[in-house]
Design brief:
alpha/beta; Rossmann fold; 5-stranded parallel β-sheet
């Protein structure tokens, strides 16, 4: 693995790449910078929920949501997908010790396992990780 050209990426970044929003340009630049990505199998669920949430908030029409999801699926098909099962035990332990969600911990642990950055738009997560060694894994808009 090449830590300069690979990253773990979460749903927030993937959605911003396919649906215009505040940090879409930032994400596009990061996607070009890294070039190869790792996701968790749960990322597919998170992306679909995120896009559906934009429909319910009337930020996207049904047809735009469908097109965006198709675009996200095409991109994720090129990413290396890891099973949540690979890190679930450690994820639950870390979540309880840091007071954050198990799925956020899953991405963090995957990034740590391979020595990669974790590309996310989750600035709230960054605030929660302040003072933790896990903060250094995050690549997020500052």
């Amino acid at each position: 693995m090449n830590t300069d050209t690979e990253a773990v990426v979460d749903a927030s970044a993937i959605v911003a790449a396919v649906v215009p929003e505040k940090h879409s340009e930032w994400v596009s630049g990061r996607l070009r910078r890294y070039g190869y990505f790792h996701v968790l199998d749960l990322t597919y669920y998170e992306v679909s929920n995120s896009i559906l949430n934009k429909v319910s908030k009337k930020e996207l029409t049904g047809s735009k949501a469908s097109a965006s999801f198709s675009e996200a699926l095409k991109a994720m098909a090129l990413y290396e997908t890891h099973s949540f099962q690979e890190i679930i035990s450690d994820s639950l332990h870390l979540a309880s010790s840091l007071g954050i969600t198990a799925y956020d911990c899953a991405y963090l642990l995957l990034a740590r396992k391979f020595g990669l950055s974790f590309l996310t738009l989750d600035t709230k997560l960054a605030k929660r990780l302040a003072g933790s060694s896990y903060l250094e894994l995050l690549d997020y808009p500052k």
